[in-house]
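Structure in, sequence out. Go:
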């Protein structure tokens, strides 16, 4: 009887040792580095069970053993908690680490960057080419309706959903900035703010210049002077489909279009691009300035003047720079040509400066977009 009890106890101890040894081996194998020599990207389909996922990982050489992955994941209580999606498994990832990636749903994050100043057709082309988006493009939104910024998304998000996100982002940004606008601006609606911001966006890429250019445009609007902005002419000629690809001509300046601010008074009827946050801020917080004119300075920025005589000198200086630099040759700037002298100047009076102050730019300056004006 005693021998039977001892034998039973010995058997139990042996089973415990075997089980314990097996558990320790499984734990080691589950956490050991895997065979993948480099990062591996896999798409785990929806509805995949544990066995199917283990086979997919094994055949892609992410894990060394299907059995170890299935047993380890089951013991961890995660067999029904692995999420579908696109995953990037690092080199030599263990079966345990692979399980955690899928249990926590840490899918690959794609990014789509929309630069400031693109027209809506140009933004739509970017969305169409984004490889991880799915589905057709939605109807083309209105110009100026999409906010330029970087958007994160995961594999399978639809192109329609991405465009909808851009529209919501622009509407929210404009509403926020409009509510905090400087007092006394001659704007009737947030839509007009977007129109002016879209022109500022095309005029300069220098953060410090945006509020000044806004101030110049407000001064001209208050005096009944036409804006005479080259980018509006380019939009009138191209319809916003892309860059003009050549210098503006006299025929371009005579283009009959409500967007041609050489021919029409006030703002054009709509935006000419999708302006970024910094240009929206500049349009709603212009600099206090008496300037009415600006022209390229030859260094990627602009030089400003209060009088037509000053503008003429700056244009002459620019023409001299153009003649002296064959590699930087370009058209004579047409930014603000010789309009009639403003009434205030004809009467020998100075312009009352706007009440707005220059804001602190919320976005870093970009590389200069223009070399001529």
């Amino acid at each position: 009887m005693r021998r039977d009890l001892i034998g039973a106890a010995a058997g139990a101890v042996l089973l415990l040792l075997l089980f314990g040894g097996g558990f320790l081996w499984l734990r080691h194998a589950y956490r050991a580095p895997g065979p993948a020599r480099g990062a591996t990207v896999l798409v785990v389909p929806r509805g995949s069970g544990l066995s199917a996922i283990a086979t997919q990982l094994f055949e892609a050489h992410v894990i060394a053993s299907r059995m170890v992955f299935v047993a380890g994941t089951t013991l961890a209580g995660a067999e029904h908690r692995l999420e579908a999606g696109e995953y990037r498994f690092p080199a030599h990832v263990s079966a345990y680490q692979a399980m955690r990636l899928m249990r926590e749903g840490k899918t690959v994050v794609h990014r789509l960057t929309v630069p400031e100043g693109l027209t809506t057709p140009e933004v739509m082309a970017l969305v169409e080419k984004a490889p991880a988006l799915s589905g057709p493009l939605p109807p083309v939104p209105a110009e100026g309706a999409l906010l330029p910024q970087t958007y994160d998304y995961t594999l399978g998000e639809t192109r329609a959903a991405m465009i909808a996100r851009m529209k919501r982002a622009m509407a929210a940004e404009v509403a926020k900035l409009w509510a905090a606008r400087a007092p006394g601006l001659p704007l009737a609606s947030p839509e007009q703010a977007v129109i002016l911001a879209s022109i500022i966006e095309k005029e300069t890429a220098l953060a410090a210049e945006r509020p000044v250019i806004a101030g110049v445009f407000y001064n001209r609007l208050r005096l009944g002077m036409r804006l005479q902005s080259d980018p509006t002419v380019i939009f009138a000629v191209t319809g916003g489909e892309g860059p003009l690809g050549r210098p503006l001509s006299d025929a371009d300046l005579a283009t009959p279009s409500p967007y041609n601010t050489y021919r029409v008074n006030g703002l054009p009827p709509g935006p000419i691009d999708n302006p970024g946050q910094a240009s929206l801020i500049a349009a709603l917080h212009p600099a206090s300035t008496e300037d009415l004119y600006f022209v390229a300075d030859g260094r990627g920025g602009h030089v400003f003047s209060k009088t037509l005589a000053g503008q003429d000198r700056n244009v002459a200086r620019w023409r001299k720079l153009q003649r002296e630099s064959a590699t930087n040759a370009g058209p004579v700037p047409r930014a603000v040509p010789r309009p009639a002298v403003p009434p205030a100047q004809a009467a020998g009076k100075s312009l009352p400066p706007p009440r707005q102050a220059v804001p602190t730019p919320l976005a870093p300056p970009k590389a200069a977009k223009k070399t001529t004006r």
